[in-house]
UniProtKB/TrEMBL annotation:
Molecular function, one GO term: isomerase activity
Function: Responsible for synthesis of pseudouridine from uracil.
Keywords in alphabetical order: Isomerase
Reactions catalysed: a uridine in RNA = a pseudouridine in RNA
The protein's name: Pseudouridine synthase
Length: 295
């Protein structure tokens, strides 16, 4: 089993070495080394080294094998593909509109019912398979990024960690804001008494940044736009709850959750740089009906 990737060299990499190309595309050093040692690099179908100089229009081919990756094989059990809504797809990745109440991924090997199980069934006729990159909490809806081969998984991970993949959320929360926009910067760690939760300023807290903008405000509720600058577990839910604005319907952090039909948190937009490219795209997930009804 192997995966072959051929990239046409763009003008910004004219006269670059193959090594520079691999670095620019954010391939981990370990994989770069394995491509070099395995002699699995070609330019215009001629064997190449990392020192080979390429020109605009050249075809650089890389051949990847399972030992290049920590998780080379996607083993999610196929489930029904009914209801899958694809917002964007190319040969390397897709963005799916995840419904609220559906788990992002299974926790056990034979488990089904998650969005990745549904995508395994959806992709089965094409011979492709889903690889986990970006998680959404079970009760959160909206745009979720999924890789379609193991080659782009480490690249997408690095794009996320370097903030070249940007996530925007909408949430209905309790209470009124005194400012139209701002930032929550409370560090987040494990809750001291409840292992299911996270909380601010705990012993093991790590830095966390969330920007907010008030879109609409009523007497006791607000629709806010949220931009993640970091990616801590439950970050949005904790930042809002700890600052007096729990997300409506949050089973862990909203004392009035039983009065709301769902967690009112939706991943409305993904802005990302495509792997092996300088192209930037923005993918939007339409607001669910219950969000629109509240507006």
């Amino acid at each position: 089993m192997h995966w072959t990737k051929t990239i046409t060299i763009s003008t910004d990499l004219n006269q670059a070495t193959v090594r520079t190309c691999l670095q620019t595309w954010l391939l981990p050093k370990r994989i770069q080394g394995q491509l070099r040692q395995g002699r699995r690099l070609w330019v215009n179908q001629v064997p190449a080294s990392v020192a080979t100089v390429v020109q605009t229009g050249d075809a650089l081919t890389m051949q990847f094998i399972p030992t290049d990756f920590r998780t080379p094989i996607s083993s999610y059990q196929p489930d029904s593909a009914t209801g899958i809504e694809i917002l964007y797809q190319n040969q390397d990745l897709l963005v799916v509109n995840k419904p609220a109440g559906v788990k992002a991924h299974p926790n056990q090997p034979a488990e089904v019912g998650s969005i990745l199980n549904h995508l395994a069934a959806f992709l089965q006729p094409t011979g492709q398979a889903p690889y986990m990159v970006h998680r959404l909490d079970q009760q959160t809806s909206g745009a979720m990024l999924v890789a379609l081969n193991p080659v782009v998984v480490p690249i997408l991970d690095r794009l996320i960690s370097s903030k070249q993949i940007h996530r925007t959320y909408y949430a209905w929360v309790w209470g009124q804001f005194t400012t139209a926009s701002g930032q929550f910067n409370d560090p987040i760690g494990h809750h001291p008494t409840d292992k299911r939760k996270r909380w601010i300023n705990t012993v093991d807290a790590q830095s966390a940044l969330t920007d907010y903008q008030v879109i609409r405000q009523t007497a006791d509720q607000a629709l806010v736009k949220l931009d993640l600058q970091t990616g801590r577990t439950h970050q949005l839910r904790v930042h809002l709850a700890a600052n007096g604005h729990p997300i409506m319907g949050d089973p862990l952090y909203d004392p009035r959750a039983a009065t709301v039909p769902r967690l009112m948190l939706h991943a409305v937009q993904l802005h990302l740089q495509l792997p092996f490219s300088t192209d930037l795209i923005t993918v939007k997930a339409p607001l669910p009906e219950n969000f629109q009804l509240m507006t």
